Amino acid sequence: MNNFSWIAIYPEIVLLVATCVIAIADLFVTDAQRRVTYVLTLLTLVIVGGMHLVYFRGGDTLYAMQRMVVSDPMGHLLAFFACAAVFVTVVYARPYVAERDMLKGEFFTLSLFSLLGISAMMSANNMLVVYLGLELMTLSTYALVALRRDHAVSTEAAMKYFVLGALSSGFLLYGMSMMYGATGSLDLGEVFRAIGTGVPNKQVLVFGVVFIVAGVAFKLGVAPFHMWIPDVYQGAPTAVTLLIAGAPKLAAFAIAIRLLVEGMLGLAVDWQQMLIVLAIASLVIGNFAAVAQTNLKRMLAYSTIAQIAFVVLGLTPTVVSGNTFSAANGYSSAMFYMVAYVLTTLGSFGVIMILARNGSEAEEIADLRGLNQRSPLLAAIMAVFMFSLAGIPPTVGFYAKFAVLQSLVSTNVYGYQLLAVVAVLLSVIGAFYYLRVVKTMYFEAPPEGSAPVSAPADVNALLAFNGAAVLGLGLLPGGLMTACVTAIRVALAT
Amino acid sequence: MGLLSLAIWLPIAFGVVLLAIGRDEHANVVRWIALIGAIVSFIVTLPLISHFDIATAAFQFTEDLPWIERFNVHYKLGVDGISVWFVLLTAFMTVVVVVSAWEVITERVNQYMGAFLILSGVMVGVFSALDGLLFYVFFEATLIPMYIIIGVWGGPRRVYAAFKFFLYTLLGSLLMLIALMYLYYKSGGSFDILTWHKLPIAAHAQTLLFFAFFAAFAVKVPMWPVHTWLPDAHVEAPTGGSVVLAAIMLKLGAYGFLRFSLPIVPDASQQWAGFIIAISLVAVVYIGLVALVQRDMKKLVAYSSIAHMGFVTLGFFIFNPLGVAGGIVQMISHGFVSGAMFLCIGVLYDRVHSREIASYGGVVNTMPKFATFAVLFAMANCGLPGTSGFAGEWMVILGAVGTNFWIGLLAATTLVFGAAYTLWMVKRVYFGDVANEDVRALKDINAREFVMLGVLAIAVIWMGVYPKPFTDVMQVSVAELLKHVAVSKLN
Asked: What pTM was estimated for this model as a whole?
């Protein structure tokens, strides 16, 4: 095999080149012509996303750059969704950032660079590549959070994000160095084989796993590593919140699979236990804290913690009593959950941004009062998102929960089945605060003198499409589920 | 597209169209489209009964398409003698509800009508689903429109009632979801309900499954002591919401017992039958007494519904053909009667804007036509021979006496309590002298209301005088079900 299989990383190369071109081109446009940058960005995303989709369809697994990166269906499928997520983010965000005088070239180039980092994480086959991708992504998002540098809350959020993010990267890097010390390699395949031989010192390995799990948990935002999520979600400009809540979650999921499964499946017994504890803690903290919130962004932040807990749960029932019979089932369920979650979250923040017009924010749940009277379509779309997050059929959120719970129940291990019951009971609490949003939109009268909501046609159309996707995947979830299973099966087989 | 698919998706399609076109400026167009949608949806269900083969217990009008291949979930529909009447009942009551809302709902008419049409299609889906997950999806999806209906068009405490309704039922059904997944796993990857009917399950697992199903269905029925959401939901819901809730949604739970609990976990059902019978009798006796002291008419009928549904579950768990068939007849009859009683309350409420019994008195003097209907439905509610209420109760009591005399005796007290609370309400609301100016100013029902109550009156009397078509259809299926329940599935 040719060690430099450039073909495997064409999408990333295109993305990098296009981003540089956009960065330069943007120097020559005035604020009034910023649409050029916008269109170029969207074009780039469409092309790169399309390439990922083609690669996914091809279904080949290819190593490149001396096995530094891998091109496999899972990476490409996730990267495709990441491109889609950034695309959606940029479209939703344009009117919002324009009103706040943030519509500079930086917004676009930093978004694209963070996508490049995400892409690298998704196709990493080496711990250093994981780390490099992570840093590229997070450094871009730190800067984005601080984009409104004269805005105290945003600056504070950026500071918190940076400090905690750096800490978590440190965790991850420390864990990786432990693994390297124990196994003598950074290549994930090598690490996997080394653990399989049973030669490396088990204590060092477990020590390393603890740090890696902590680092991944930080990025995923599960309790007790969730502290940054509420503050950053609330403090960042909503457009940037949307960016953080979307594609990076997919990347965090990707590195969880790459590191924990492809690298350290041999230590699954250890990290599964940790993940179970993290998941339960997140379900409890996320759900209970979300009930108490009056700020919509903060509520969605806490709800994210609870939602991601389900993804983490999906990673746990995979190596049961020493066999990996149900591995593909669990991982693909988790992946489906993640995609469904990102799809839904993008839409909900999109609605918040549309409402935040004319310079005023619409961050409080109370700002949604009577939305049904002000804009029935927008209210219906938001209601679909809320029901999806609550896991009520026929929305995609239901099948996501169903898939994960099913993977727990199918283990036929009493403990896992109990875990499913606990998760279900806690998600009833979750239903309460999502329903409260629906209540505010539908059951309450709009405030005096509130104008009907209007949004640019492109935003409206995409939002309607987003809502239709959440509902449509709820009626026919089969295709996406099968895609996730295919991706995971191939990833596990190699 | 099969008939059942049409019965499900036609009203949903009409509902979506209504949601899309809506503005209150052309409310009349919306109303007519809703009415046409409801009637057409009802008409497509008629062949289900006219072409129904009563000689077989097999499922008819079946459709089967792969839906989610990943989990081997099928879009599988079919009806048997137990479920077919409920499909018709659902479509029929939707027509009634649309008519009942005609002049009453003036705000966001399109959303109101749309919600009911969508709800109708979804409920037909519950009754005709033969795939566990499909059933669950429909079962849960009913919550969304009802939540909106109660919350948007409901009374002063509507938010509380809507939340209580939603969360209560959600909690119950999520436990059932776990049970469905367990069955999926146990059956080697199948969601087919008919496969589950043949699946041997160990005693311990059967008990857990039984209670998981119980959690979902008992809340929905609702059985004592998990009934507390119902009075709240009924009182706060708009008239149409109460009608659909009482007439059809409660039946989803009872139907679930027949489709899931009894055939899938027969041994646990037998083992815990005493428990179910006991709480059913509590519902009949205690809730009957509770109904007696209500001052709010809607609350009274709500409690009366719980008592009547207690009768249904009682009938199911005495495991004889008379009891089970009686329970089903009672379900259908209760659909007509409770729906009609809520409509009557709605008629009064639209005029006086009070549901308190004390606000009325002597209504018969000013609304003679209406009072005739109201008294008829009240009589049916207390099970007067010749009305539909009698047939079901009589069969269940007979079945119960056949099993155990004392159960039969306690069950029979419903005839006393039912008569007591219903007739006492009738006396205070309709008879006597005109109580106040509000009542004096009442106008009798108009043509729309007359037709709406008239068709229900015909249904109630028809079922009371000649219940044979109903029992004939269900006979074979009930016998098959009981045969199934009698065979142990332990291995």
From this structure: 0.91
